[in-house]
């Protein structure tokens, strides 16, 4: 199969969808791998490493896309990339379509087969291709929040761990999944006072047992969120509904109850964000202020630690890439119903119900397409 790895063009996105190690594995299986020149440099993988692995380098971005059967990316395709997609091609990347109607309709119009990392499941009900980046984003969220609390960044001038004689800062994490646990773990490590809110009692029990009561676990209700809003110096939004738009849990009116200079970090921004005042930002301009509250809403947080993120992501994606290359998308998805859950768009039709629901469109059962 002809496999293409274009260079990411989203603002400050340095990750790459395939490492030289992955290229070597695919070439050894008889596939042709074309890598756009410079695609791996931001993550520390020079062109020479891809050449040594047997990949073909291509400087012309149009040629990279037009000659491919399978296109591997990290982030959702930008407008100029959507325009390059054609029927018969398979795109495998993060999509997060429920928050992006224009992108969704663009992919439908392309006629391509689009498989999303973030909706592939596993036998335990997890999201194995989202989890690595959720881990990175959760850990980065506390770094970003702590920095944003500095007075020079517009924050209240609070040091999260405090100092002897001065109480530590208070961190609330809304959502106790992979992002939330990793954020809470980092905040605990800094010495902050940490509260995790979630609607799953079993999940709260797991966190309470795992961290031996060092973090507070609270069942998430409107009252509990109101209290977190009033008391916290840093709130991290870590709510995920797989494939669907994130719920808006903190409204603009609630910002008036927050401490001036406190910080909101919205890790759910890829899915539209879980704060009403959230809007996607970039690493170039990561924060903005609404009603005295600092918002950090970078939509590709892991891109800032591209080397670590690329290795973590491609460790998870490579087995799926090999299945697509060896079998083609239909057989690969037919053989693995968990992989089939990743199919979001095919031949102009939406195949993921939550995406269709977000825009009032019809969806097709992917099972009918992969038999």
From TrEMBL:
Keyword terms of this UniProt record: NAD, Nucleotide-binding, Oxidoreductase
Catalytic residues as annotated in Swiss-Prot or TrEMBL: 96, 270
Binding sites annotated in the UniProt record for NAD(+): 134, 198, 203, 220, 239-240, 267-270, 279, 298-301
Annotated Alanine dehydrogenase/pyridine nucleotide transhydrogenase N-terminal domain residues: 4-137
GO biological process: L-alanine catabolic process
Domain Alanine dehydrogenase/pyridine nucleotide transhydrogenase NAD(H)-binding: start-end pairs: 149-297
Keyword tRNA processing: no
CDD domains for the chain: L-AlaDH
Binding-site positions, substrate: 15, 75
EC number(s) on file: 1.4.1.1
An annotated Gene Ontology molecular function: nucleotide binding
Gene Ontology CC: plasma membrane
Reaction(s) catalysed (UniProt annotation): L-alanine + NAD(+) + H2O = pyruvate + NH4(+) + NADH + H(+)
Record-linked InterPro entries: Ala_DH, Ala_DH/PNT_CS2, AlaDH/PNT_N, AlaDH/PNT_NAD(H)-bd, NAD(P)-bd_dom_sf
SMART domains listed in its UniProt record: AlaDh_PNT_C (SM01002), AlaDh_PNT_N (SM01003)
Protein origin, superkingdom: Bacteria
PANTHER family: ALANINE DEHYDROGENASE (PTHR42795)
Family: Belongs to the AlaDH/PNT family.
Protein name: Alanine dehydrogenase
Gene from which this protein is expressed: ald
